[in-house]
Amino acid sequence: MVREQKRTLWAVCCLVLVAAATLAARQVLAPKAVGVVPHKFWRLRYEVDVRTERPERLYVSLPNDAGPAGIRREAFSRPGLAMDIQRSPKTGGRSAVLLTPGKGREARFAAEFDIRTRIALANRSFPPNKLTVADRQRYLQPEVNIQVGGPAANKVLAALPATQDSAERLRQIFEYCWMSLASDESGRSTAASALSTGSATEAGRARAMVALCRTAGIPARVVTGFSLDNPGPTQPLAWVQAYVNSAWIPYDPARGYAKFLPDNRVTVRTGGLEIVRAPANTSVHIRYFAERLDD
User: Fold this and answer.
1) Could you read off the pLDDT tens digit of each residue along the chain, which spans 295 residues?
2) DSSP of 224-244, one letter per residue?
3) Strand ranges (E), 52-166
4) Torsion angle of the four alpha carbons 270, 273, 279, 280, in this order, in degrees rounded to the nearest 10
5) Residues facing residue 70 across a β-bridge
6) Long-range pairs for 119-122: beta carbons < 8 A, 24 or more residues apart
7) Could you give the C-alpha distances from 157 to 28, 160, 175, 179, in angstroms and in order?
8) 196 within 8 A of 179, measured Cβ to Cβ
9) How many Å is the Cα radius of gyration of the chain?
10) With contact defined as beta carbons under 8 Å apart, do 223 and 269 qualify?
11) CA–CA gap between residue 176 and residue 194 (Å, rounded)
12) Residue 79's CB: how many other CB atoms inside 10 A?
């Protein structure tokens, strides 16, 4: 009987060792989330069809050319549209400002950006960014879809373990939005609806994290961009930047990235979700495409 128990124990130990070795091999052979990109060069294309009854201004956010994801070439097509490019002095982001022809005529704005994705992310630190008092207050205030200090946000924060450390509070908020909110892409995307129902779209998850951060006194903002990983039609992604230790630190509560982003992530707009902003009476159809380029 003792000998049989020893054989069983030995067999279990062997199985455990095999499983551990298999898992270790998978970790070694699998592509790393940080520092390794399957393809470095991409083309991102916008196509925006717009029709208005009278001349209107249209704002289109463009990929950030000042970040580590470098733009090698960009080209614009805009027949019938007047265009200017503006840069935000606060975020460094760029927008194409278009003036539509009106009179019910349709016009198309097309843009192409050849992009080299980021490298060596594991060794990158986030540059210091000093906030003015006015800017700090701005990133603590409520917005239309980001309800700060409401019943839902206060209830969630009250249920988290008590702490006076802002970094620990930020970690708790991130983990709550990542692990405790269920995904529901058919639902509403406001912070209040996400926190009250416990389910959220990707946009709702980002807004919920921003609302919780701001309610806790941590400046935060939504960021929009693209993940260049699959060729063909693509859609923008939403994530969060929180202001910690005099720097803006990225968090993606929809995918579980904290304090870093994958190398193939390209920032387009900082401080909002909509890449194309148009008046309510404007007919707009938007498409985005990604294409691999030769090295």
Assistant:
1) 445 544 544 443 443 343 344 333 333 333 344 444 457 899 999 999 999 999 999 999 999 886 656 899 999 999 999 999 999 988 889 999 999 999 999 999 999 999 998 754 444 567 788 899 999 999 999 999 999 999 999 999 999 999 999 999 999 999 999 999 999 888 778 999 999 999 999 999 999 999 999 999 999 999 999 999 999 999 999 999 999 989 999 999 999 999 999 888 999 999 999 999 999 889 999 999 999 998 7
2) EEEE--SSEE---EEEEEEEE
3) 57-62, 70-77, 82-87, 94-99, 106-116
4) -160
5) 116
6) 119/35, 119/37, 119/40, 119/68, 119/263, 120/35, 121/34, 121/35, 121/68, 121/260, 121/261, 121/262, 121/263, 122/34, 122/35, 122/260
7) 38, 5, 12, 15
8) no
9) 23
10) yes
11) 12
12) 9
- The encoded tokens of residue 227 equal 């993940």
Q: Return the amino acid letter for 168.
A: E
Amino acid at residue number 188: R
| Amino acid code (one letter) for 56 | E
